[in-house]
Structures are given as C-alpha cells and as structure tokens.
Amino acid sequence: MNKSLITFLSCISLGIGLCISHNALAVTGWCASGSNTDKPGEGTPYQYIFEMEKTVTDVTQVEPGDTLQQGWHKNQNYTAWCDNTPGVKSVTYFKAQVGPGMVQAPDNQGFYYIPHTVETLSVQTYMDINSNGSLRVPFNNINNHAPDDHTKPAAKWGSGKSGHITIRVEKAIALSRIVIPPTIIAELWGSHTLDSYGTSPLVQVVVSGSIMVPQACIIKAGTSVTMELGASWAGDYSTLGEKPAGYTPVTTTIKAHCDNTLATEELNLGMHAPAAEGGFGAIKTNKAHLGIMLTAQSQHSVETRFRSDDPSIRVPFHLAENNGEATITLQAWPVKTTSDDITPGDYVGVAVLDIYIP
Predict the structure, then answer these.
(1) What percent of the chain has pLDDT over 90?
(2) DSSP 146
(3) Closest CA relative to residue 185, chosen from 202, 204, 164, 210
(4) Which of 13, 230, 289, 327 stands 20 to 30 A from 340 (CA)?
(5) How many other C-beta atoms can be found within 10 angstroms of the C-beta atom of residue 336?
(6) SS3 state at 181
(7) Cα(81)–Cα(96) distance, rounded to whole angstroms?
C-alpha cells in the first residue's frame, strides 16, 4: 500500500510540473513601444507632438460653442513589438483614451476640458487607424485588419501619427492670450488579444500652443489731453509737496476705448513722466522748483495718485459691455518741490498715460 501511495504522489507531482511549464509558454498579446522585450505591455510611449496657434481677429464674433479645427500628420514611425506567438500572424487591436486629468464636458459629445484653460476651451480628438479611417477618442478593440507577426521590435509602426482635433470655445474669451500648455490629449494601446492591453500606451498625442486675441486701446482717440491749471500765487505755496492754499484741483474726464472688448476682464491705467527735482513724486515742469501732481479714478477704483518715481502704480477699470469704453476722472494741481522761490510765469509739464492689458 505504501508503494502504491508513492506512485500516486509521483503522478500528482508530474501533473503540476506540466501545468507550470504550460503557463510559462503563454503569451499576452500585449504591445509596447521601444525595443525592450523583457516586460510585455510596458514601455515608454512614443509622443507625437504638435502645436496649435490661432489668432482671433474679432473676439465679438467668437461665441461659446464655436470651434477651431487643426490636424496633425507626422512622417515619423516608431519602434514597437508585441508579446505574441513567433511566426504566427494575427490582427492588432487598438484602444484609445483621453489624456490624464481631462474631464468631459457635460454635453457628452466627446469634448474634454483642456487643463489649465479655466474651462474656456475643450477638445475633441480623432485618431486615424489603418482600415478604419478617423475614429473619435475614446474607442476600444478596433481591428486593423492587417495580420502580422510583431514579436520582434521593428521601426515600422505608424498608428497614431495622424488625426485631427477640434477646439471648442466653452465660454466668452476673457484673456488676450489663452495658453495651452503641453497637454496629453490622447493615448493609444495595441494588443493581439481582444479586450486585453498592457499597462503602457504605445503612443501619446501631445498638443500645445495658444489662442491670441489682438487688442488695441486708445485714450481720447489717441490725442493729447490738456489740463489748464490756472493761476496761483507764489506766496500760497506754504508746504512742500502740497497744493497751494485755497487752490482747487483741476478736473477732467477721459474716455478709454478698447477693441475686442470681450477679451478683457480688467484693464489698468498707468503713468510715465519725468520726476521733478526735490521728489514728492511730482511731474517735472519747465519751471524750476515747481511740479505737478496727477490722480486718476474710475468707477471701479478709489482716487489714486500717480508718482513719477513709481511707474508701477496702476488704476484698474472695466469697459462697458455696450460700447467697450470706460470713463476715467483725472485731477491735477501744482506743487512746490524745493525750498527755493518760484519765479513768476507760465509752466508746462508732460506725462504719458498707458493702458495695460492683462
């Protein structure tokens, strides 16, 4: 009986050994980019990179839902291989997914928000697959109808090297330049086994670029603004850097107008001017010891005094939606900048006002 038991156990041991040997010969069918055949389905994805540069000449003609289309077609093939049985030709299946972190727009039409564009832009991606034409990403288990033996790495792969994208405007453009950082918008996998793919995609499609919205702003049709400060008595300048006693600052309003008005959420007014001697941030005049102070105020800001020694000072304002204009109030007055006496006579000072677009 012991002899029979030993024989029985030997048969079980032999059966297990054959089972293990059979599993070691199994193939996954998974494809991978590159020449390293150590790990089926794992490799460094080949990247097809293209740039999209578009200029919108009139942002008022661009509304949510409008689209911009651009294709890509690269001549470079890439090296890849598949874990299938040597000498046996079979078809390759492909699946594609959108890039990491991309969130689908709510209309379920295959558009996905492009990261870092504040949900202003979304993208719909189509990829060309042999014998299948242009397919919208994502897709799964697409047969290329081209049986082949891919067990050895070969630089003849081209799936994913062509296609096109459609950029859709999701909301009103609120910047002069929308930057699309390098973004993986689609990834492609391959396999000789239906519905089974490795961990690494064969290809990544990467898009970068920007959408430019040219803007132009003018102040009072680009002409100069003259403010007559009137007469003042030398004896009224009792405090350096302050307006003369009893003097009322001169007030005027200017109109700022910008084209492509929808492209601006907030603009800023700044000033550049030569500095008067003695400091105080006054604008230099052609009369010694005398300078000019200037302030600006909009509906969206408090009265702010410009300084000739600090050109970084800004006065924010917004444009009216109906005409793309803003009204800005300026005030100016003369100041004494040194302790020396001011000689009688006329004087003039010049400052440049600039509009800054974010």
Answers:
(1) 59
(2) -
(3) 204
(4) 230
(5) 26
(6) strand
(7) 18
- In this predicted structure, the answer to whether residue 260 has a pLDDT above a threshold of 70 is no
Measured between its terminal Cα atoms, the distance across the chain in Å is 94
Q: Residue 272: its pLDDT value, please?
A: 93
Beta bridge partners of 142: 94
Q: Tokens in use for 76?
A: 């470079």
Q: In angstroms, how far is CA 105 from the centroid of its own chain?
A: 18
Which pair of structure tokens corresponds to residue 231?
A: 């007469």
Q: What is the pLDDT of residues 180-235, one digit of tens each?
A: 899 999 999 999 999 999 999 999 999 998 887 776 677 765 567 888 998 888 88
Alpha carbon distance 128, 130 (integer Å): 7
Query: Which tokens sit at 229?
Result: 């400060």
Locate 57 and state its tokens: 């000449």
Q: Which residue's structure tokens are 């400091």? A: 279
Q: What is the DSSP string of 61-76?
A: G--TT-EEEEEEE---
